Amino acid sequence: MKTLMKTEGRHISNQITEGVIWKQLLFFFFPILFGTFFQQLYNTTDAVIVGKFVGKEALAAVGGPAATLINLLIGFFTGLSSGATVIIAQYYGAKKEEDVKKTVHTAVALSIAGGAVIMVLGMLFSSAALRAMNTPEEILAPSVVYMRVYFLGVIPSLIYNMGSGILRAVGDSRRPLYFLILSCFANIILDVLFVTVLQMGVVGVAVATALSQVVSAMMVLVTLLRTEDSYRLSVREIRFAPVLLHNIVRIGLPAGIQSTMYSVSNLIIQSSINAFGTDTIAAWTAYGKVDGIFWMIMGAYGVSITTFAGQNFGAGKYDRIRKSVRICMGMAAFTSVLLSVIVLAGGRVFFGLFTDDPSVISIGLGMMWVISPSYITYICIEILGGTTRGCGDAVPPMLMTCVGICVLRVIWNLAVVPLRPEVSTVAFSYPLTWSVTSLFFIVYYRKGGWLKRCRGIGQNAI
């Protein structure tokens, strides 16, 4: 058994750098996709149960402003931790086992320290931040409670995310899927117990989420502690290695800033949505869960191409990186068109899962018809951005995303929405900014000389 565990990651790694590209992308993609599906199910379960058994105010409290603020803090750390995934993938592809080991321990130390900081910030500033977003009074109190309980369990959540990133970096996308499935079922069972049986309402949803995050963190830690490969974790060796921490931050900080800018722009959008009342907030929350189908698939493509590019970059196989981009773009384009059709065709059915309120459903369908047809305009941001980050080029993608999506979205909502204060005007900021930013990425990928610069940096760092 130990021999099998030791060689499992290497076998997948060799296939990433040597196997048939489209097969290996799919081999890596589907476990990530299913994992993201269960992550979405994990989050959607909360919304479905509180929406059906507690009411639309609880639905808005769990999935509205509170979720946006949580995503801001968690998203920053997730972006920061992506630097560890890239560095580990490059070292693993280059077969530098000692560097893999040191980076793993630095990454876990970062997740513990980062989780402690986020927990304190979340507990202290939840109420003030929700008030600053013009959160309606009827959902303010339950939103504050939900956030504070959620942040009590944030350290296990970050440990799981970091540990899963480590496993994916070495080519193992299956075990993070298994862990997430088990955690998801734990969350569903606890949601039903706390909300429908014990009648704990929003508090029950938050407690269920926190406990299920502990389950997922324990499983990923046991895996890292027991493996015989170079990414094995030893509790006594969990500490920061300054040089490796610098490399992680060099790549991860731009991604963290980018995620934060996304969240800030979404905060402004959420504030605009809040001004339309509780029905609109509930509709936006429900549409966000339906829209999550698209995001989970595009995210799976992004993680796949980032890891694929990182390992091939470490192995010095640069032509293989460009070939993988063309193949992955074709897959993403086909998927995005198919998803637009499915989401639009099943819109009323999807919204019916969350609420029976006709006003909420009507508002949600209006949002859907503005945003969902334009899914294909987003794919270049995910695929080309993931590729360049996987090779260590993190700052330009961050700048292009911040300007093209975040800044433009903020300008649109502050300058244009007041001139035409309708939900459709707010929603149009998504296809507009996706299209502009995709053009930035296409030009940069073809003309920016990013791979040549990365090769020069990589010779010194890897």
Q: How does the SSE layout of this entry go?
A:
Blueprint: H1 2-18, H2 21-53, H3 56-63, H4 65-93, H5 97-132, H6 137-152, H7 154-169, H8 174-197, H9 201-226, H10 242-274, H11 278-314, H12 318-345, H13 347-352, H14 358-371, H15 379-390, H16 395-416, H17 423-427, H18 429-447, H19 450-461
Helix pairs in contact: 2-3, 2-8, 2-9, 2-11, 3-4, 3-6, 3-11, 4-5, 4-6, 4-7, 4-10, 4-11, 5-6, 5-7, 6-9, 7-9, 8-9, 10-16, 11-12, 11-14, 11-15, 12-15, 15-18, 16-18
Average pLDDT score: 81
Oligomer: single chain
Number of strands: 0
Helix content: over 70%
Main beta sheet: none
Q: Which structural class do you get from the secondary structure elements? A: mainly alpha
Strand-residue fraction? under 5%
Cα-atom Rg, whole angstroms? Answer: 21 Å
How many helix segments? 19
Which of globular, elongated, flat, extended, rod-shaped describes the shape?
A: globular
Could you name the ranges where pLDDT drops below 50 across 5 or more consecutive residues?
Answer: 1-14
Give the termini separation.
Answer: 31 Å
Order of helices and strands: HHHHHHHHHHHHHHHHHHH
Structural notes for this entry:
It is a single chain. With 462 residues, this protein is mostly helical. It is 85% helix and 0% strand. Helix 3 (56-63) runs parallel beside helix 11 and helix 4 (65-93) runs parallel beside helix 6. The longest helix is centred in the middle third of the chain and has 37 residues, at 278-314. The model is unreliable at 1-14 (pLDDT under 50).
